[in-house]
Amino acid sequence: MMKIYFELNGEPVYTEIEPGEILLDLLRRLGMKSVKEGCRTGECGACTVLLDGKPIRSCLTFAAKVKGHRITTLEGLGGPEELHPLQEAFLEAGAVQCGFCTPGMILVAHSLLSRNEDPTPDEVREAISGNLCRCTGYVKIVDAIMLAARWKREGKWS
């Protein structure tokens, strides 16, 4: 066992991990239900989280790598009582069907919009290209991210 410290959704976490434990398993053990296991090969994006603001595949990342870093999951952006503007945009645009890919899509979008408040639809498609959606065909997801970008430019979220 190894002891590590990291920040999870703005809160300090002190925990023990097994040698070779992957971040996906650790986050699920810590109760993060938005982090999905879709493939365990890094191809689907369902396990996407933000490491210091950048999207990573938690199924490909050893838990030990996050020692001293910031991890953000969908739970860290918003919840049922107060949705994050990206969550609101996904709902308004109808970009949610089964919802399995949604947490990863929203986190990738959050990372994109944190560095580019005015992306083109092609830039949005490129940003989400590593996250598979088997339900929507991506059109409504791109629409949702473009809507959130407009809201951000208009000052409706910071």
Structure, explained:
- With 158 residues, the protein is α+β, with helices and mostly antiparallel strands.
- The chain has two domains: 2-76, Ubiquitin-like (UB roll) (Roll), CATH 3.10.20; 85-153, DNA polymerase, domain 1.
- It is 32% helix and 16% strand.
- It has five helices and five strands.
- The chain has helices at residues 23-29, 85-92, 102-115, 121-127, 139-153, and strands at 2-8, 11-17, 48-51, 54-57, 70-72.
- It has a five-stranded mixed β-sheet with strand order 2-1-5-3-4, covered by helices on one side.
- β1 (2-8) and β2 (11-17) form a beta hairpin.
- α2 (85-92) crosses α5 (139-153) and α3 packs parallel to α5.
- The longest helix is centred in the last third of the chain and has 15 residues, at 139-153.
- The mean pLDDT is 94.
Which key features would you list for this structure?
Ubiquitin-like (UB roll), alpha+beta, 158 residues, DNA polymerase, domain 1, 2 domains, 5 helices, 5-stranded mixed β-sheet, single chain, globular
